[in-house]
TrEMBL record:
Its main location: membrane. The chain crosses the membrane at residues 282-308, 314-331, 343-362. Keywords: Glycosyltransferase, Membrane, Transferase, Transmembrane, Transmembrane helix. GO terms for molecular function: ceramide glucosyltransferase activity. One of its GO terms (biological process) is glucosylceramide biosynthetic process. SUPFAM superfamilies: Nucleotide-diphospho-sugar transferases. This is Glycosyltransferase probably involved in cell wall biogenesis-like protein.
């Protein structure tokens, strides 16, 4: 037991430390991208079609979408897409159009063979494909800074890449365990994205040239798949096509009084998308899950063994030193959020996140479907949608 604990505990600390240092390097990468963007003449920036699928009644949606409409980008066409013409999100679009008349509203209708978000995105593409050179896809609930679009499109404008991606960070507005655990999970995914060998598209902020969209048959792929980013990332990885991470294309997600069931449903989708579309990465995720869960569990068993004189005192000293080391590494992670958070609460939230991660991963083992915005998608190999069950409760 001791040697298994030592191997996994060492791996856990090393991984978290490397990711923390990767996060600390991101501001420098942002500055380099900003310098490259400033050097690019205004007439070199391609015309962009910004497609934003919208659904639900999230209170953050109005401010988030409006932040996407005030970008300091030379020329872009915003397209807001809803499934129906009579739904809360469509009402919001019409309200936004009162202030921004140039915004296009596309009513996509119900998806029949793919995820609703995919269907909405493809309808948005059809509305602008003859007028733009680059497609940008954004979520509707994250705040964007005015230079977000330049950061996301910069590598495409310079000819460095055909596909680029940003990510988001959660700004916790309270120190409740669930809110902090959600922030920590998103931070983990952002830092994994920053490792070049692990970078893949994120549907909340991704861009691609119109030519690449056609050449890699993205429309045909999305038209039968449950999700946009993982399905396309799997195809690009198989073809060895790189995706350029733009760390400055960082959206901000406010979170306050975050509900546990909402957090779990979100985390379940992230894990299931990998299972359906990128099974190898899902398997690696299982190893990471074990590396996160087993060290503290084994440490508890060894502590109990010491109480009953079955484990040496030296072993317990090593366990306590590991706990201190882990707390120091988590302190580095806490600093990446640039918000004052109690270290004790942060560490407890980390344990909460690990426990939720384990629960969600175990639940994903037998799963053959995914629930998203009130609909159940029954999914086959490579994320292909086999059946849609509407009005799922």
């Amino acid at each position: 037991m001791f040697w298994l604990w030592l191997a996994l505990a060492s791996f856990k600390c090393l991984l978290l430390y490397i990711l923390a240092k990767t996060g600390e390097s991101l501001p420098r990468r942002v500055r380099l991208d900003e310098a490259a963007n400033r050097a690019l003449p205004e007439d070199r920036w391609p015309v962009v079609g910004m497609i934003v699928p919208m659904a639900g009644t999230d209170r953050r949606m109005s401010a988030a979408v409006r932040s996407l409409l005030i970008q300091n980008y030379p020329q872009y066409i915003p397209v807001l897409v809803t499934a129906k013409n009579e739904e809360p999100a469509a009402d919001l679009v019409r309200s936004i159009q009162n202030d921004y008349p140039h915004v296009r509203h596309v009513v996509a209708g119900a998806a029949q063979h793919c995820g609703q978000k995919n269907h909405n995105s493809l309808r948005g593409v059809a509305a602008v494909k003859d007028d733009v050179e680059v497609f940008v896809f954004c979520d509707s609930t994250h705040m964007a800074r005015p230079n977000f679009l330049r950061h996301l499109v910069g590598p495409i404008a310079t000819g460095e890449a055909e596909f680029s991606t940003g990510y988001h960070v959660v700004d916790p507005r309270d120190q409740r365990p669930v809110t902090l655990a959600y922030a920590l999970c998103v931070l983990l995914m952002r830092l994994l994205q920053a490792v070049s060998s692990l970078t893949q598209l994120w549907g909340g902020a991704m861009a691609m040239t119109r030519e690449a969209f056609s050449r890699f048959a993205v429309e045909e792929l999305w038209a039968s798949n449950v999700v946009d980013d993982c399905s396309l990332s799997a195809r690009l990885q198989s073809l060895r096509v790189p995706v350029r991470l733009c760390p400055g294309a960082l959206l901000h997600t406010e979170a306050a009084k975050h509900e546990r069931q909402v957090w779990r449903a979100w985390l379940e989708r992230q894990v299931l998308f990998l299972k359906f579309c990128m099974p190898l990465q899902w398997g690696l995720l299982g190893f990471m899950c074990a590396a996160m869960v087993l060290p503290p569990l084994l440490a508890v068993f060894m502590l109990l063994g010491w109480l009953f004189a079955k484990v040496s005192g030296l072993t317990i000293v090593l366990v306590l030193l590991w706990v201190v080391l882990l707390a120091k590494v988590l302190h580095l992670w806490r600093n990446l959020l640039k918000r004052t958070i109690s270290l004790a609460r942060w560490c407890l939230s980390f344990l909460d996140a690990v426990a939720m991660f384990a629960l969600v991963y175990v639940r994903s083992l037998p799963a053959r479907s995914i629930v998203w915005h009130g609909q159940r998608y029954v999914v086959g190999p490579c994320g292909k949608v086999l059946r849609i069950e509407r009005r799922f409760e």
